[in-house]
Amino acid sequence: MWSRVTTHPIDPAAVLAEVGAAADGAVLLFLGTVRDHNDGRPVSGVRYEAYVEMAERVLSEIAREAAERLGTDRIAVVHRIGELAVGEASVAIAVSSPHRAEAFDACRYVIEEIKRRLPVWKEERYAEGASRWLEGQVPQIPEVAGG
Amino acid sequence: MCGVTLDGSIVRSYLGAYPMRVRVLFFALYRDLVGTGELELELPAGATAGALVRVVRERGGGFARIPPDPVLAVNHEYASPAVALRDGDEVAFLPPVAGG
Question: What CATH number should be reported for the domain holding residue A122?
Fold first, then answer.
């Protein structure tokens, strides 16, 4: 398993290189990229902010949970923060497994959990110059840490 | 720790009144609302995360615009408002998340 929060551009080949084994017949790469529009408004770019120490911890937990579901530790995930231009990747997930079903399941699990609970926020910048924080999801807290 | 005491009840009452310091962080929309990303606050020992939220909102202005039941993290883990805080804890106010 490999997980990172980074301010640098994502290199998909480097993320793919973290997974894959001779026993694997399926290798999957998912990229989440910055769209040029949202709700009908032209978007010129986005800025992602993270609570970095916590985001690194949560991302690592998500990868570990996905590995438990998949039964393999061949999962790599990176989330980029800072200023991103349209078309750039904000997130990359690579998974490999002996068969495709587990790889698709694990990849889907990682991206959905990122959306659900990774402490990252997205400020969209619009072509006309305005910007705003996107409305996000309220993380549901499954278990409460002891006092 | 407090200093010298003669009996346990005095220890407890003194510790209860002894202030603790916590580091409070605000992110994204909440940081914009309150105008700062970080505060140091003193609270009575044993105060809960929920009590901290009330103290923060009572500062008024942008602080009062934070919802009464924000998502919280204590020391980098999601936490319930019922959690008792400790001296030196880091408590973060987290707006709804939008990663991916």
Answer: 3.90.1170.40
